[in-house]
Amino acid sequence: MTGAYVASIDQGSASSRCLLFDERGRIVSVAQKEHRQLFPRPGWVEQDAEEILGTVLQVVPDALEKAGLKLADLVALGIANQRETTVVWDRRSGRPIYNAISWQDTRTDKIVNRLAAEGGKDRFRAKTGLPLTAYFSGPKIQWILDHVDGARAGAERGDVLFGTMETWLIWKLTGRHLTDVTNASRTMLMDLRSLDWDDELLEAMKVPRAMLPEIHASSEVYGEAGAPLRGLPVAAALGDQQAALFGQTCFAAGEGKCTYGTGSFLLLNTGSQLVESTHGLLTTVACRIAGEPATYALEGSIAVTGALVQWLRDKLGMISSAAEIETLARTVEDSGGVYVVPAFSGLFAPHWRSDARGVIAGLTGFTTKGHLARAVLEATAWQTREVIEAMNSDAGTVLRVLRADGGMTADNLMMQLLADSLGVPVVRPIVSETVSLGAAYAAGLAVGFWPNVESLRANWHKAAEWLPRLDPETRERRFRKWKKAVARTLEWVDDDDE
Amino acid sequence: MPRPIQSIQRAAQVMHLLSGRARRLSLVELSAQMGLPKGTVFGILRTLQQVGFVEKDPDSGKYQLGAALLHLGSTYLDGNELRSRALNWADSLAARSNETVRIGTLHDGRVLVVHHVFRPDDSYQVLQVGSLLPLHATALGKALLAANPYVLSELGREELSRFTPRTITDGKQLTAALKEIKKRGWAADIGELVDGQCSVAAPITDRSEQTVGSIAISGPIERLCEAEMPRSDLVEYVRESARSISRDLGAIPW
Fold it and tell me: Do A432 and B91 make contact, defined as CB atoms within 8 angstroms?
């Protein structure tokens, strides 16, 4: 082993990126290439898997060149990927038989509703940790097999293969057909306990076993890449949010992180214990290191966080850039009793009410733009608190510190409001690229570049910390008001709405 | 309330008209639209031309808004915007140098800290965003002053206060130091604000080459200096990150 760097691919919904990390977990190079998203019909979102492969094969050499490094300087490659997006291809030609169907695509609504009609939305929850919704891969596979000529027969023979994005990339890079436990846990086809494909689920989704990849650990040498990355060990694969949890070094039960972007994703490590949520959170695999048992996580996503700031910018024109919301919100001391609940398409975890729509509550003649801006930032904080309370109650733990990452962490006021509404410290790590870092860590561990997870903890450093400043009485009084505002969003949608 | 000043009102009207759809207007067109004699309008235009707010297009002889006006708008950069643009670069500077990183902007004759990245060790540190520092006794401040020398003349004599024996309190001496800083492109404070502490800063510029902020690392003199001078590798790290942030700011379409 001559190299001194680990390469990490972050294959996302709109672009592929390659980051190179050194032994101390510091970024030494970044390269990015966007790919197309195709919208053939309302609600349909597709991608070209071959185009995505092309971007991946380009960003690795680009990142090397930017840092003045050679392929031989790399010890391993790890992959973090957009989850659930479904690729189905022909084993012999190596070409997709249909465009990749994105996780955002809702064409499988009908399949999902039919399955739910037979046994409820939560009929597979005990086994998969997931409710029946259009996101997950199983129904997407069914749709492709039902709509492409000869696909089903090919799949039954094992000539037509399925993979989420990491499986497609690993197959193209190493020739092996495999997935990792975190990605497999988002297909709705895997039993969370046995960590194997489940016959009952396969039958319900009408997916032939012969087309499925082998399920492997998330940190394991899967094989060596061929040209143009010849000889590079491909040594990790994780779903992007699980990668972020790993990159934040949340290795132990009770440690959790939230990634703040357009929407936000909270994951809480529950260790080897598989926690079933009674609050509508997802149960998912956090990671499995080769030779060790799997660790699990609870996941709660918040649909509208950064998107609410964008709404203020693009739809109301109240600010000209996202960062300006902080300037506007700092013109006032508090939200002046205003609460914004962004239930734009209903309420998600932990409420799950599709009949809800957004409200702005508590308006008075005294309300200014500043109050509204502050209430918009507070909405992210209160929504985070709701999900954390659900997690604490499901897992029987108490989150003592929140590790935050993602673009919105640049907003210092938002971070302070978060600490104030949660009543616990909020910290931002020095490497905010936690998705890429997590995949790099998992790959580096697999090849022995780092000896163990403890050595990774030593790389984690606080870049900033926000401590709660609000007295507990005020905090609870405001949270009570938030809940009242949430209650006012309910039962808004009527059957005969235009 | 005092009465509005008529000539300023008329000057503003000229600028509004020139920012309208036509963009370029002749003296005749302007005086017609304003309902004022040509001589009056010409006087206003000549003054606006002198301060650079209006220019005369040499080909058509028409008047248009001047470059100085565009300049005025673009020198203001929201501190929160600067932080959000600089976030990754500041993190990576802290990781490479192993020191505290801060970003500052000019604010009422002082440095306003708009971003702070902790030193990447496990020591207890408190976020300093929002605090104000003296311009003349910090590397952040001197990097800003070197690019905006007019601010120095606004600082009263009493404001050059002494914090340590090394603080520069003499105006002439400070001016000479700033010239040197401007020439070499970076600033240092070696024990000038706090005994034993050093910081090294470089200016952040926008696409019109205006200095909109500065970025610095800070730490004890024994770590940051060699032979009483900041270590050249650290100076290079700071300058590189300032250049990277400046490059990213250049991409902002105002």
Answer: yes
